[in-house]
Design a protein that fits this description.
2 copies of one chain form a homodimer. The C terminus of chain A is likely disordered. Helices cover 53% and strands 11% of the residues of chain A. Chain A has one domain: Winged helix-like DNA-binding domain superfamily/Winged helix DNA-binding domain (Arc Repressor Mutant, subunit A). In chain A, helix 1 packs antiparallel against helix 4. Chain A has 7 helices and 3 strands, in the order H-H-E-H-H-E-E-H-H-H. The longest helix of chain A is centred in the N-terminal third of the chain and has 13 residues. Chain A is mainly alpha-helical and 122 residues long. The structure holds a DNA duplex (30 and 30 nucleotides).
Chain lengths: 122, 122
DNA sequence: GGATTATTTAGCCTATTCGCTAAATAACGC
DNA sequence: GCGTTATTTAGCGAATAGGCTAAATAATCC
């Protein structure tokens, strides 16, 4: 998490990370694994070269979606679900009528949206 | 919708679309507009050149997230929320314990995940 | 009908992504 | 200590993304 970008850059990092099928598969596999998977195990999911997987893992970690710890020469990766929840929450805005969404503002749902408006778009 | 990619390519298109801040802003603005916005109105949200906005709109439309109709020389764009729901549902998998998720399979939630596993990853 | 307006298309350019192979680094086992 | 194994780093190259300006196309207005 220490390298995860601050909002709203986080959205860009997260959605970018989710945009590649290999990276989605990594997330799915980590989720199903429940605990952690080694880099080698993850690399074994794919037919492509291991360094390619390393690249993907680095990007997922930079986005804050996964994290790793070392155990000897093995690197164990695991999911960081709160980051995924960020994306989910952002998307949750679109299942509500904007008028009712404002009435139901509980301080958690609408947070992503105004911050996005204030991003460097000028 | 007629040009929207089939699953699981849809995920790539959708998350890619969401990865750029300008495109997220377009979606947010369309959502708040409630009905539709013209290309010019959308372009007016940004300081960048109008053709850049056109590019973003084309990508959003290819991903099935928005659609347009013509009214004379004006092009009106509107949100296609079911596509966003796809992404949300995919992400919804990560808020559940995998074991309980299988027990609660109602035919809507888990659909994105197995299809992803069958994608061309070999 | 010509000028104005709405919008896209075409093409250029720079930066980034994502695949690869080779090399490097470190841990492990005998 | 040396060979093996786990993993990343470095660098290359092709493809793509995303910005731009100029030009094109079509609708609208006077």
């Amino acid at each position: 998490m220490k390298s995860a970008p601050a909002l709203p850059d986080a959205y860009e990092a997260i959605f970018t990370a989710l945009a590649h099928p290999a990276r989605r598969r990594i997330l799915i596999s980590l989720n199903f694994a429940g605990g952690a998977m080694s880099a080698g195990q993850i690399a074994g999911l794919f037919g492509h070269a291991w360094p390619t997987t390393t690249r993907h893992l680095q990007l997922l970690e930079a986005a804050g979606l996964i994290e790793h710890r070392r155990e000897g020469r093995t690197r164990l990766y695991r999911l960081h679900a709160p980051r995924l929840a960020l994306a989910r929450d952002w998307l949750a805005w679109f299942e509500r009528d904007p008028a009712t969404a404002e009435e139901k503002d509980d301080g958690t749902g609408p947070a992503p949206v105004p911050i996005e408006h204030r991003s460097r778009q000028s």
